[in-house]
Amino acid sequence: MTAKRKIYAALWDTLYCLKVQKIIEKNLQERRSSAIRHSYGIKFEVIESMKTYAIPCKHACATIDSNKEAVSQYVSAFYSTEVYRAAYETNIQPIPTFDMPDPPQLSDVLIKPPTIKRLSGRPRKRRIHSRGEVEHAYICSRCKQIGHNRRT
Questions:
Q1: Over the chain, what is the mean pLDDT?
Q2: Of residues 11 and 1, which shows the higher confidence score?
Q3: pTM (2 decimals)?
Q4: What are 40's strand-pairing partners?
Q5: What percent of the chain has pLDDT over 70?
Q6: DSSP for residue 76
Q7: DSSP readout, 7-19?
Q8: Residue 41 — very low, low, confident or very high, per pLDDT cuts 50/70/90?
Q9: For the chain, how many helices (H) and strands (E)?
Q10: 147: how many CB neighbours lie within 10 A of its CB?
Q11: DSSP secondary structure, 60-72, as one string
Q12: 38 vs 67: CA distance, rounded Å
């Protein structure tokens, strides 16, 4: 898996990972429909999704573009292809298992059922039916309808 990602990342020619690059391009396209108003100086208010993902949302892209700045300045360096390549640069070796004990066989393990403690208080009025078990259907002897008896 690591080798595949290392090869995959080597083919990228973008500044950020492909998924992040697509999100940024989508936000840049959607920002065109936004109207930007400066509240006071360089203060803007609608940058909620940027706080959680460190990728500018469409509102932030529109604001950044209106200030004539590059959107790439506001994307976290965590999403850059350099960081991604560095993460998969070294090979991760599997943990050797020769000094570990063998796992127990299924026949050696005896699993006992849990102990059942009777609940305090009055017992349930109606029992819980087993799977596939059908509740008794009441049939009225007077009108022959199902769901009630003669008394009700």
A1: 76
A2: 11
A3: 0.39
A4: 43
A5: 82
A6: -
A7: HHHHT--SSB-HH
A8: low
A9: 5, 0
A10: 9
A11: HHHHHHHTT--GG
A12: 10
* Averaged pLDDT for residues 29-37: 60
Dihedral sign of CA atoms 66, 74, 58, 20 in order? positive
| 37 or 103: which leads in pLDDT | 103
Residues 6+ apart with CB under 8 A from 56: 24, 27, 47, 50, 64, 71, 74, 75
Tokens matching residue 100: 């570990």
Place of tokens 């020769």: 98
Q: Are 15 and 72 in contact (CB under 8 A)?
A: yes
What is the number of alpha carbons within 13 Å of residue 11 lying toward its C-beta? 7
Pairs from 36-44 (Cβ < 8 Å, separation ≥ 24): 36/62, 36/63, 36/66, 42/67
d(CA 92, CA 100): 20
Residue 52: pLDDT over 70: no
Enter the tokens of residue 49.
Answer: 């999704």
Hey, what amino acid is at 67?
N
